[in-house]
Structures are given as structure tokens and as C-alpha cells.
Amino acid sequence: MADVTLVIKRTFDATPEEVFKAWIDPKQVAQWYGPEGFTNDIHEMDVREGGSYRLTMRVPNGDTHPLRGVFKTVQPPTKLVFTWQWQHGEKWGAETLVAVEFKAVGDKTEMTMTHEGFADEKEKEMHNQGWSSSFNKLEKLLS
Amino acid sequence: MVKYRDGERMLDALGLPLRRTMVRRLQQEGAMSLSKLAVPFKISLPAALKHIRLLEDSDIIETHKRGRVRICVYKPSAFKELGGWLASQSAFWESSFDRLGTIINKRKR
Q1: Which stretches make up the HTH arsR-type domain (chain B) (predicted)?
Q2: What is the spatial distance between Cα B97 and Cα A6, in angstroms, rounded to a whole number?
Q3: Which of A38, A45, B74, B75 could form a disulfide with B26 if both were Cys (CB 3.0 to 4.6 A apart)?
């Protein structure tokens, strides 16, 4: 079946801390989410695992596109994972998953963003990982 | 956004691993009856039909009745929409990251 995953790598002339912050600081997100000419109203940005964000993207032609999601992993300055869901009229679209990793390379930061079409399977995986690490702990405790 | 809607509807329909497995079987093994398709999942026919309806509504498969048997067929054109979704997301992020680069540079100066 079609692999519905998008991977984009970029290198920025900044530290991982700075690039990470640009993803979670509402003032900065408002400035860069979306193509040139787009603006964003950030309604909520509760950056902690399980916390939500809500924003409205304003397109130059006047249309607005509400977007929302939940933070799944918040590990400054190396990893950020959150769900991504557009609103279409009254309905919410498919929930997808965005994962961003930040790696220092010299005095720059290599950022890898993965936008995965199926949020559920990743969640299941994370769930499984959660269990396996619990089991590892249990194993240590028992040995 | 609005024009990516069909792609997102497909993502929704494919959001459940069970439905993805159903589609993969139809892709690889060709058309088959609903009851044959449902066998590996140990689910009832009405439950299987519900999943099939969702896939049919998002244009990934089509079904037709032959007597009392419902035949499910994968549509080869289905994933073009998803290609469109990917392309639109790619354009969205690439241009966003251009702007991100600009504001990071501004802050540094």
C-alpha cells in the first residue's frame, strides 16, 4: 500500500535549543507556520505531553483554516511529536502525526520532520514502547 | 485544507490497521467476497460490512452484489488522492521552513 509519510530535512544556522523553541513559542509559530503571506492566530499552546494546541491559519485570500492537535512527546531540545488535524467546515479531518527531531551538527542544527498519515499506528507503537520499557524496568526489579 | 479533503478522508478510512490489511489483501489477492475478506479478522459479517462501507465511501474500493454475495474490489486509482495529500503537505512544510529559516536568521542578527 502507498506509504503515506513525508520526511523533510533542513539545516538551520542556530542551536537545537533555538530551533526547538521556534516550534513551541506561540509568537514564533505565528510567524512561520504556512507559506508566505499566511498569518496565524494562536489560541492555545500548552506545550507538555498530553497538552493541546489550537490555532487558526489565515490565508491571503481571506479564508481561515482552524488547526488543532495534542503534544505527544516534548523532549527539549531533541524531539517534539504532536498530532495534526485540520478543520473543514463543521468537521475535523483525519488526525495525522508530526514528529520533529533536532540534532546539533557543528554550530548548526539538523532538523528532520516526519509527517505521518496515520496517527493511530504510531500511538500504538508508542504504547507498545511504553509497555516494553515498563517490562524492562520490571525485569531489572525482579532480577 | 479544503482541497486536500479527499486525501484526508482516505487517511481517516485507512486509520485503522484492520482496514489497511483489508485493502492490502484486495490489492494483492484481487477481488473477493466480503465473507472471505472477513475470515482472518474473526469479526462478524455486519462488522466487516461497516469497515467495507467506509473504504467504499472514501473511494478506495468498490463493491457489488452477485446474488447474495458481496464482491469487494480494490480501485487502482485510489491512492492518487493520497499522493495529492502528500504533495500538498510537502509544499506546506517546505515553504513554512523557508520562513522559519528567515526568522531564525533575523533573531541571530
Answers
A1: 9-88
A2: 14
A3: B74
The per-residue pLDDT for B69 is 95
Q: What is the DSSP code (8-state) at residue B65?
A: E
Q: How many CB pairs under 8 A join A and B?
A: 108
Considering only the beta carbons, identify the residue of A14, A32, A93 that sits closest to B99: A32
- pLDDT tens digits along B15-24: 888 999 999 9
B27-54 burial, b for 16+ CB within 10 Å, e for fewer? Answer: beeeebebeebbeeeeeeeeebbebbeb
What are the pLDDT digits (tens) for A28-60? 999 999 999 999 999 999 999 999 999 999 999
Domains defined for chain A, CATH in brackets: 4-142 (3.30.530.20)
> For chain B, which residues make up each domain, given as ranges?
6-108
pTM of the model: 0.79
Contact between chains at B92 and A4 (C-beta distance less than 8 A) = no
CATH class of B6-108: mainly alpha
A14 touches chain B (CB under 8 A): yes
